Amino acid sequence: MDTSPSERRTEVNTSTLGIIGTGMVGAGVARRAVDAGLDVVLSNSRGPETLAGLVAELGPRARAATPAEAARAADLVLASLPLAAHERLPRSELAGKTVIDPMNYAPKPGWRIPELDSDELTSSELVQRHVAGARVVKALHNIGPRQLLDLCRPAGAPDRSALPLSGDDPAANEEVTDLLDVLGFDAVDLGTLAESWRSEPNTPLYAFPYVGQPPSGLTVPELVAWVQGAPGVPVPAALVKDLAAAAVRGPAGFQM
């Protein structure tokens, strides 16, 4: 189910985005959402009072809350926790909501998920299993906050970038497509959550198309820092489709 940029509308059927988790991804999406005219309800595991600085920076469209309150406040919720903390998501408050999942699997010594290592599940299927009453859509996981701000463009702009999404519920996919449109991006629907691996780490569609070729000889920490700070490179919808089609499923999670 591909999305035609020329047919996208520039409205979203909610004026409020709930955000659970305010690390780089959550804060970056919040900034872009506020700039695009949406209200945001921010939350983290440490309490609303710890978000006073970010709320002040974002202005009157932002307020802080608990994760449960952020889930109740919006029909569309960004769950930007580390994947290792996904079981902290408030299941009852997210029931009936569309949950955007930007989480990626990053196994480390002492913490691995056998179902992901064996490719029995994708990470988003794992999240969907936890929040069974919600409608999970994988999105906003393969682009960094700097590039999210650099690459947003009005609908129809010749250098507008596209982002992939995957989900099992067509109506939820459409909601997230509309949100991406408001944030300044076209969307390419890659199919169900079972196909979301096509845009996860270690695939051609993850991160690097939006920043270009990194310098050679970087250590892993240097590479991560370079990607986080690199200016955005436009990625059209046709290229997103081609890169997704070229993906070959290998070991799950970051493999550096």
Keywords summarizing the entry:
256 residues; alpha/beta; Rossmann fold; eight-stranded mixed β-sheet; 10 helices; 32% helix; disordered N terminus
Shape: globular
The counted number of beta strands is 8
Order of helices and strands: EHEHEHEHEHHEHEHEHH
Class from secondary-structure proportions? alpha/beta
**Kindly, what is the distance between the CA atoms of the first and last residues, rounded to a whole number of angstroms?**
32 Å
* Number of alpha- plus pi-helical segments: 10
CATH architecture: 3-Layer(aba) Sandwich
Q: Explain this structure to me?
A:
The structure is a single chain. With 256 residues, the chain is an alpha/beta fold. The protein has a single domain, classed as 3-Layer(aba) Sandwich (Rossmann fold), CATH 3.40.50.720. 32% of the residues lie in helices and 14% in strands. The chain is built from ten helices and eight strands. Mean pLDDT is 93; it is low at 1-10. The radius of gyration is 17 Å and the shape is globular. An eight-stranded mixed β-sheet has the order 3-2-1-4-5-6-7-8, with helices on both faces.
